Amino acid sequence: MRVLGIDPGLTRCGLGVVDGTPGRPPTMVAVGVTRTPATLETARRLVQIEEAVEAWVREHRPDAVAVERVFAQHNVPTVMGTAQAAGIAMLVAARHGLPVALHTPSEVKASITGSGRAGKDQVGAMVTRILRLTAAPKPADAADALALAICHVWRGGATARVDAALQAAAVASARQRRAFTQARPSRGAS
Fold it and tell me: Could you tell me if residue 168 is inside a domain?
């Protein structure tokens, strides 16, 4: 499975592509950061992010996209920019028919380091170790994007199987209800 991990941000948006399957060490395909100038109006910055994510999807052809789930912060302008960038990432993935998974920062940290409270340095060190790199990707947004992709490879397969099982159970339940309803005699029949 090839996963494009996206650490959304209006100023810096981390992008990382990983190939892997659960139970095997993943490999890095590409990593980078797209930057937008703070002096540019927000709409133009979002266009630049969209163009960058679009280019990465076309070049690397991922099977899935993993985006960091935006969580509430006290800094509203930062959260707004992050949410807008995340929306752009999801839009590009949807345009290409790719499944999108949202992972919380603590979920990613726990998956990569074993602790949901790990610091950025710990995440970078573990990404370096897991992918057998010679140095941690810089800036931290790049390492975070790779961590998202790794997390999805490791957890995404299980999540997809659970979702498929739930969907199959819902379909089976609906069939049983229809069969029961059709087999029941109507109340007015003698």
Answer: no
